[in-house]
Known about the structure:
single chain, alpha/beta, Aldehyde Dehydrogenase, Chain A, domain 2, 20 strands, binds nicotinamide-adenine-dinucleotide
Amino acid sequence: xxxxxxxxLFDYAPAPEAIGIAPIANSYDLFIGGQxxxxxxxxxxxTVNPATEQILTEVGLADAADVDRAVKAARRAQEGWxxxxxxxxxxxxxxxxxxxAERSRELAVLETLDxxxxxxxxxxxxxxxxxAHVFYHAGWADKLGYxxxxxxxxxxxxxxxxxxxxxxxxxxxxxxxxxxATGNTVVxxxxxxxxxxxxxxxxxxxxxxxxxxxxxILTGGPQTGAALISHPGIDxxxxxxxxxxxxxxxxxxxxRVPVTLELGGKGANIIFEDAPIDQAVEGIVEGIFxxxxxxxxxxxxxxxxxxxxxxxxxxxQRRLATLRLGDPMDKNTDIGAINSPDQLARITSLVxxxxxxxxxxxxxxxxxxxxxxxxxxxxxxxxxxxxxxAREEIFGPVLSVLTFRTPAxxxxxxxxxxxxxxxxxxxxxxxxxxxIAEGLHAGVVWANTYNRFDPSSPFGGVKExxxxxxxxxxxxxxxxxxx
Length: 483
Ligand code: NAD
């Protein structure tokens, strides 16, 4: 494993996805009460392709007056939506899910243009998972009495939902599908840098004949989000984003309405000496370099048994040297662009902190394109628990490698974080998997794999990674008054 020739890189001819399938208008309005309407104050916000720095289009910038209109539209629609028979709500959700699947190529192209993630990932992961989430919840709509939430779970009312930029359509599906299945109506705000698939989803709602006002989409920035979560007419807040903003939301609401918070993470991926190394290396790559590392549950701290650390790091670096970085619309691309200059600046400053604190920095030899926002896969070795790169969420393609000697030390180090979203464990021993999983303070633990999702499996955190679950019957619980 340690020696041997460097992996030969095949040359691939470019395989660009056709972008004509996803036409983009010059401008988009807000989606309120089933119609696209301009913002009251006429504000606009540009959205940029992070791989080229070109402006894709402009969208409405919603302010407090628009929030008020949207919440009132959702309120007007809510009673009728909740009264509708579960199977009819389910039919509409199935219709939306089928339309999303039919238009999946278009949605994948839009997602990649707006976010910068490789088309291979939006096509094979984001959009299929988003569709699966809506299909799954469509199935629940007429079976809520069997979800373990009492005989007659009742909707909360109007849900205010705010989501981040890393999985725009998937996070939308995680929010909207359970809310609608349980008879709530929603006002959703996508992230300011990735509004396009949410607006296309609004068109799909129109195409599906969803009753007006059941789904409302307000594009805008942090102020739009702040106005939405503090509106007196809402009955529930569901937020996915940074721990810092999650904290401020909790302070603002102070218990006024039920809240679910899906926040940041600093996941530990633990590799024991008996782990299958080649498989583990693939899991490490999946854990931290998928989606340029902009994954809340990323395995951003690699904990490796001391005797095998050199073997693992060498194998990892060899593998990383084969990853292709560049045009996200090319089907051969493994690593796409970073979503925004702000995010790139944050990643760069944390990498600089890692170097300044004395960790050894290795960067993949992939050349970076001249335009756009890029960060090559980076691996830090010799990392200490106290280093900022071991403690703070980087949300970029940067891995911190630490070592351990005993399972107890692995657990202690893995749990030495303010976060508690996800973790991974790699070993041949089933008993060790169970013991370690039991000891990890994390909402999700993967064994001999990483970053696997299923709509029937609840996802969420402990500690400063938030509370509440998305997916499974547990995810429905956040949207109902149980009897
Ligand atoms: P962010 O917190 O800056 O923004 C998230 C959303 O909140 C955006 O739509 C933003 O406009 C809005 N917002 C910002 N300030 C607000 C305020 N004061 N009130 C209301 N809304 C406000 O996060 P981000 O940079 O977009 O996303 C990255 C973060 O999201 C990371 O920390 C990541 O771990 C987390 N995340 C968590 C999960 C999860 O399931 N736990 C999933 C994806 C991302």
